[in-house]
Amino acid sequence: MLCNVQPRNNLPVLFAHDAWYIVFIIFFSFSNGYLASLCMCFGPKKVAQREAETAGTIMAFFLSLGLALGAALSFVFRIII
């Protein structure tokens, strides 16, 4: 949100060069992918054997819900900028 997105209305530009935006996207994509993979691998192992399938299903649902809500809220953040 503090990168150089045009037109600017409310927030200042703290990272003027586009390379910062690319660095942030790379960092967030790797960290999100790694953490989501860890959760999906180890989550079902932390519950009883008979509940592992249900836990995996619930985790997949909430991961998808979080990604969908994040994508939807990006339009709100664009309005704020």
From TrEMBL:
Q: Could you tell me the membrane topology recorded for this protein?
A: Multi-pass membrane protein
One of its GO biological process terms is: uridine transmembrane transport
* InterPro entries for this protein: Eqnu_transpt
Q: Which UniProt keywords apply?
A: Membrane, Transmembrane, Transmembrane helix, Transport
Assigned GO CC terms: plasma membrane
Note one Pfam family from the annotation: Nucleoside_tran
Question: Which Gene Ontology molecular function entries are recorded, alphabetically?
Answer: nucleoside transmembrane transporter activity
Question: Chief location of this protein?
Answer: membrane
- Does this UniProt record's set of keywords contain Transport? yes
Compartment list: Membrane
Which family does the UniProt entry place this protein in?
Belongs to the SLC29A/ENT transporter (TC 2.A.57) family.
The name of this protein is Equilibrative nucleoside transporter 1
| Organism field | Oncorhynchus mykiss (Rainbow trout)
